[in-house]
Amino acid sequence: MNKILSFFFTISIITLVACSEEGKQVEEEQSQQEKTSEEGEKTEEQDTGTPGGEFQSVAHKEDIDTVEVGPLTLTIVSSNLVTGTVTDPFILDKIGEENIDYINIGMEISTTDEDINFSSDHLKLTTDTGESFESPHDFMSDKVEMQYIKEDFTRSRMIVYLFDNSKVEDIKSANLLIKAPTDQDGQPLGEDANVEIDFEEK
Question: What torsion do the CA atoms of 15, 20, 25, 29 make, to the nearest 10 degrees?
């Protein structure tokens, strides 16, 4: 699953690193105008050469927030708005769409009690374009069920919401509602938390 997911969100990280390294070399050798042009060419090469398809991150946000929800601590590390075309037959069969727009959210989850109920159904997303999702895309996302989140360990997870109607260029912000985990009697442990992801905020 992680290998498949890397097709969708690694491109933004690769592009950022590649552009940074390229910028250092060009700064020593060429003018600012030439530097900008060469960085643009490098970005295009990375975007079109991604395994599984051609994808481009059009917005990126880091160090978003850390919230405590009962015994859980969730650090929202980064988020990307991504658009692209799926070319891999296996992935295309699972998703059912060739041209896709989506948001991915990278997080770190830790808990002081693993004997609780918490799953992807506790992660609801709403965008400023009006789209709402009760849970992340099952195939494209890492699992956040408690059997994968062990006590006193931090787990990195990437969740993805595949847009039905919205285009990434129209989205300015998204709200991630983290519903409180429950005990074995179904009682909530702590309060729900809202994390605002503002792609326009500097």
Answer: 100
